[in-house]
Structures are given as structure tokens and as C-alpha cells.
User: Which sequence fits this backbone?
DNA sequence: TATGAATGAGACTTCATTCAT
DNA sequence: TATGAATGAAGTCTCATTCAT
């Protein structure tokens, strides 16, 4: 079983973007600086300097500083998230998971890997959500309903087989994200996400989730 | 059993601060604006305007804009968190919890109430952690070790009685925070934390935690 | 008969404006630079430098560069023009003009003096009209209808006495402005308005207008 | 009697210019934009976009932005004005005007038609005169002396015949331009020059001028 | 203590112009 | 000839901070 190679999605997006090397450099540098110092805490002159580019070049392509942010987040929101979601979900359909442990372990590992690979975008996204909760509301709704429909169906098969507690899908997903987040969030915030032992974290998280979500006979 | 009245800690801090009414107004307004728009996204002139105060007054007491931030977060970090922690822990000591459910339900409700009451400070804190992960590192360490020592002792009694799984305290706390966070974080981010049904959320969270953390005979 | 002292209207407006000396200096300098080099051709840094003021000060009071323009033109449009118009028209009512020559000479001299005194504002206004014909349309309509009502009544008395040709007021005013403008416009554009011999210009213009507007017996 | 077809002078100049279609497009677009928004208010990138041309192309032929301005105004100043002037003056010489009315009517209509046809160039010219009164001084002198010599001679014949008041040519031309301008300027500024009823305007203007300039017996 | 005018560094952005392709 | 990415100087504007009143 192969983990989808989500790490390269940002780079792949760059390559397909028809942006020049300099403009790609602007995006890469902006991703790092926005994640490190926040959007407001990053100046366009610093972006230009670190990208080895004139300040005019920064604006030639992206028009405004917000344009850079959009260029970073839109592919992530419009393509990466749904794509990765679909990607993993189609794989899920094709696979036979005999027990909850195998299924949970797969999903947790997949999502955790994705989160680590895109931790910078996630960090930036969190900041934007704080700065502008309205703008993000629609995005959240879209994502949630998508996950409910797809992931929820997988869960239903386990409920039908009597090996998953019969709680609302929303509640189960809540614990999924909460438990996964309890490993990812601290690691990302401290900036040591790369040192996270994914295998161990996944098996621990899976163990706890399976306990908590197995029906009591 | 009385829930500690954490909602008023900020206000109480203000009253005890010997600040003039205008300077208290500056702090209140800053708390709201920093939480809404971020520290960098808030200008001192806007603080002054909303506080009904001149621009000079903002700096008279707090010296710098960072000084305002410190005046908001330091009481929260230095007093409020430990105080509330201690407060709740001393109460815990005095109480007899016969089963895990009663204990977890109490703790979760206490912490969730606290988080909701201080959601703005938490929001600001998250932003600062993103902007400056180093500065916060020490704080995290301090808090964690404190919780480990105090909360961990309570957990040990349950482990000894064989009604709590024998995992490291750190791991159990991780799931505590993760599950509690799965209710609080979305509510706070969306800005609808006040509409959260705390009773229902706590009993749900407790139910799941108890399932996941009860030893399998 | 005393010519109204229109030269000091701008200065008087400044004094009544509650602006600090520095901000008044910004306005004075802006008036000169906008008139000399055009609005677009004048930079705020040059305004600041010539006004002996920091660039921040320029924006402290007037918010934007357009704000400076508004601060220059609004008093001119909202107060000066109507005021001067009313001023001269009430005087006209009180005066007895036996013949067309005396009346025309008075009016022409009054308006020509006013135009020379406010030549810079007029220059700026012309530029703005070119840049933004829509915005000015309403202003033109207001002024025209005002002049028609007031000046037109004076003209009517001369028509009734049979010493003024019975053309529409609008047409007569057209020639008034055209002939007066034929003296003022070149002088202002060349920048030698101060060398204009007002007495001679007025008597010449009056002579021509009286010839052209006297009924042919 | 044929009115010289001045409307096409700009187009004719373009055709004879050996400029490529793209470069002609640059000039046409620049003429419109400079007239609408002013020279300083028009960016070369906007010219390029509206002309359907790359930014580099704009500079390939005209070197600088001022070069575009020169390419627009120089033919107008160096060729169009004198040419049209000469053109009309040679025609005038060949024609016999029995009375002032016929002569004035012809001249006014000719010049008014010319002004309307070249209103955009005139608008641009006015802006440039405001921005740079020195540069234009020489041009004005040239034009004025030319008109004085040619138009002045025609006027002299009428003075000799005793049907034109014996004022200095300069003064008569002043009223000519003033009265003609009183029709043209408002129409051009408001942007409704095309709706101007030239026939009616000319006969009105002529009527007034003839009254004002006919000797009193 | 409180005010708010003043500051100047620096932010974002525009734009005329150049040059490799 | 034509393109458009790149430039960097300059423009408008913001903002934390100071200080005389």
C-alpha cells in the first residue's frame, strides 16, 4: 500500500503554472515567510530580497500582496484539498478493509502525511481564518459537506457490519480530526513537524480511536 | 459543585490593575481588535478611536504597541492560566470522584468553560505562537510540566484503581485536549462559541474519552 | 464705488479654517504647485518639502492627495463662487446704473478682478474639468442656473428700458464670458495675469459688448 | 464653397506616416486617453492594452512617453495648424466677400469646424500649456504673428472700405476667438461637442461680431 | 494625566523603460 | 519588428511613536 505522494503537490502546481523561475521563487519565498512571520508581518520588499528579484517583479504577476496569498491558497483550496480528498477516497473504495484498525490507520496516516506536507499552507490558512472568518465560512461548508458525503459512506459500511458505533458521521469525524490534530498541531506550531514519528503517532491514534468507536457489546 | 467563575478573570484583572478608566478601555478595545483582526492588522490609531482616547494616551501607559499585547497576555499567561489551573486542581483534590465519567466530565466542563471565556486571549495567543514560535516555547514547557505534575497525579489514582488505561500521562492529556479542542476550536474560529451547547458537548466528549481510556478487561 | 476685496478670500478661508500653520502651509504650497505643474504632476513629497513639513503631516489632515485638492476647491466652489456672486449681485441691486456702459463696466471689472485673484484655483479647476468632466457637470449646472436667475433679472430691466437687445439671457452671458475670457485666459495661461491692465481691458471689453448688445434702432 | 475637410487631417497624417498598423493604433489610443484622462493620468501599459500591443512595442517607435505626445502634437503644431491656416487663407484670398457678415460667417465656421475636428488635440494642448507654459510660449508667438500677418491683411481691406471698425487687428482677433470660444469651449469640456449646432452657432456669433465691429456712422 | 499635531521610516504599489528572446 | 518579463525609482499612504501644550 503506497502513500500518495502529496509532498510534491505544491511543487507540481508550480511547474504546471507557466510561471517564470523568478515568479516561482516569489511564491516559494512567500510561502515560507507567510508561514513563519504571518501575512501582515511579511513585507513585499523582504519577499523580493529573499527571492532575488526586484520589487516590481513581485507585483508584475500577482498584482497585489493579497494576490500572492491567493496564488498560494487557491491551488491549495481549489485543487489540492479536493484532489487529495478524492484521491484518497477513490483508493479507499478500491481497498478492502477487514477491520476498523486497518481502515483508521490508513486514513489517519494519509491525512497526517498530507497535513505535514502542507503544513505551511495550513499555518497560513489558520491565520487567514482568524483574520477573516466570514470569507472562509463558505469554504469550510464546502469541505465539510464533501467529507460527509464521501468519508461518511465508508463509515456507514462499518456501522452496517456492527463494528463501528452508531454515532452521527459528523461526531465521528470530529474525533478523527481532534485526535489527529492532537499530534499534528503541536508539532506544526513548535516547528518540529518533520521530527514527528508518523508511524508511531498513527498507530497510537488509531488504537485510541478504535477503542473509543467500537460498539460495546 | 460550583464551576469556577473564570469569565470574570479579565475584568477582575482590570479592576485590580490601578489603571484609569481610559487605559482600561484601551485594553478592552485592544483585546477585541487583536482577536478580530490580528495584532499586525490592528493600528494604534484605531485602538485610540474605538477607546475614545487620544493617540498619545495609548502609549502613555503601555509604552509600545507590544506593551499592550504584553498587558493582555501576561496576566493570562502568568496569572490566569496557573491560577485557574491551581484553582481547579485544589477543588479536584477536595472532591471524591467515584468513576472516570464524573471526573472527566468535571474536568472537561471546567476547561471548556475556561476556553470559551478566554477565547479572545486564546485567539491572540495562537497568532503570536505562529509569529514567534521561540518566545512561546518556554511558556509551553512550563504549562505542560505543571499540568503533568498536577493533573497527572489525579490520573494516577485512577490508574491505580484499574479504571484508567495505563498509558503515559502525556498521551492521555493529548487526547483530552484533542477531543475538547474538536468542540472548541471550530466554534471559536467560526465566531459562534457562545452558541455552543456546553452540557451536550461535555457529555459527548466524556463518553468518547471514557470509552477510549477504559482498560479492556 | 469699492471693488470687493476678493484677493483675500483664500487667505481668509485659511484663517478661519482652524488649521495649524503647517497645514495652512501645505495648502498654500499645494495651490501653487497644482496650478503650476498640474495635480498629477505634483508629488506629495514635493509638497511636503516646499511646505517645510514631513510627508506624514501632509496626510494627517487631508487623508489623501485628493483630499488636498478638495480642501482647495471646495471652499472655492461651495463658498467663494456663490458668495462672490451674491456679494456682487446684491451690490448691483442697490446701485442705479443709468446706462449699459456703466453696468457692463462694473460687472466686467468685478468678475475680472475676481478671476485674476483666483487664477490659480481656476487653473486647477480647468484641469480637473478635463480630467473628470462628469464630476463637474452638476457644479456647472448649479452655477449657471444661479447666474441666470440673478444676473438675468438685472439684464431684464435693461431690456425693458429698450437699451439692451432682446436676446436670451443665456446668449448674452455667453458673450460676456467669452469677451472677458479673451482677456483673462491668455494672461493666466502665459502666467502674466498680474501685468494685465484691468482698467484698459475692462473699458475695451465694455465698449465692444455695448456695441454688440445695443438694439439697432 | 467647400469647407476644408479638416476632420481627416489626423487620419491623413497617420496614413502618410509609414507607421505600422500597431503603431498607428498606439497613436490613436494615446490621443483618446491623453484627451480623456490627461497625459500624466494615462499609463503606457494602458495604452498598450487598449492598442492591443505589447508594452515594448509602445516604446519601439516613440522611444519615450513624451515621444508619443510629440508624435501627436507636432504634426498638429507644425503642419496642421499652419497648413489649415494657410489653406483657409489662400481660399480667402480667392474669394470675394462683399460684406462683413459673409466673411465673418465663413471664417467662424471654418475655424469652429476645425476646432471641433481637433478637439482632442486641443484638449491635450491646453493641459500641456498648463503644465509647461514656457515651452508653449514660442508656439503662441509664432501662431499669433502668422495670423496677424495673414488674417490681418484681410481685415485691412474691410477697414479700408469703411465697413470694419478701425481697431488693432490683435483686438479684433481677440473678440473673434473669445466669441467663437464661448460656443466651443463649453461644448468640448462637457464632451458634447458633436451635438453642437454649428450652423446656428456660427450665424449667432457672426451676428454679434458684426454688430460689435461695424463702425458707428 | 491627557491631548493630538508632527514625524519619518517603511509599507504597498505604479510606471516608464530596457532587453533577451 | 514585436514581445513581455524584469527593473528600480518614485509615488501615495500608513503607522508606531514622540513631545509641546
Assistant:
Amino acid at each position: 500500500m503506497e502513500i500518495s505522494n502529496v509532498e510534491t503537490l505544491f511543487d507540481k502546481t508550480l511547474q504546471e503554472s507557466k510561471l517564470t523561475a523568478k515568479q516561482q521563487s516569489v511564491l516559494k519565498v512567500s510561502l515560507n515567510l507567510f508561514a513563519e512571520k504571518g501575512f501582515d508581518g511579511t513585507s513585499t520588499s523582504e519577499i523580493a530580497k529573499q527571492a532575488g528579484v526586484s520589487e516590481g517583479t513581485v507585483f508584475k504577476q500577482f498584482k497585489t500582496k493579497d494576490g500572492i496569498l491567493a496564488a498560494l491558497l487557491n491551488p491549495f483550496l481549489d485543487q489540492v484539498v479536493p484532489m487529495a480528498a478524492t484521491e484518497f477516497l477513490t483508493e479507499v473504495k478500491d481497498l478492502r478493509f477487514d477491520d476498523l484498525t486497518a481502515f483508521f490507520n490508513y486514513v489517519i496516516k494519509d491525512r497526517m502525511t498530507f497535513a505535514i506536507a502542507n503544513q505551511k499552507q495550513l499555518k497560513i490558512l489558520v491565520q487567514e481564518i482568524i483574520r477573516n472568518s466570514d470569507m472562509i465560512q463558505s469554504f469550510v461548508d464546502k469541505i465539510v459537506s464533501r467529507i460527509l458525503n464521501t468519508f461518511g459512506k465508508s463509515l456507514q459500511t462499518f456501522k452496517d457490519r456492527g463494528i463501528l458505533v452508531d454515532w452521527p458521521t459528523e461526531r465521528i469525524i470530529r474525533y478523527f480530526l481532534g485526535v489527529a490534530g492532537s499530534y499534528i498541531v503541536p508539532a506544526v506550531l513548535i516547528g518540529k513537524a518533520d521530527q514527528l514519528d508518523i508511524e508511531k503517532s498513527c498507530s497510537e491514534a488509531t488504537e485510541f480511536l478504535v477503542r473509543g468507536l467500537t460498539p460495546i457489546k
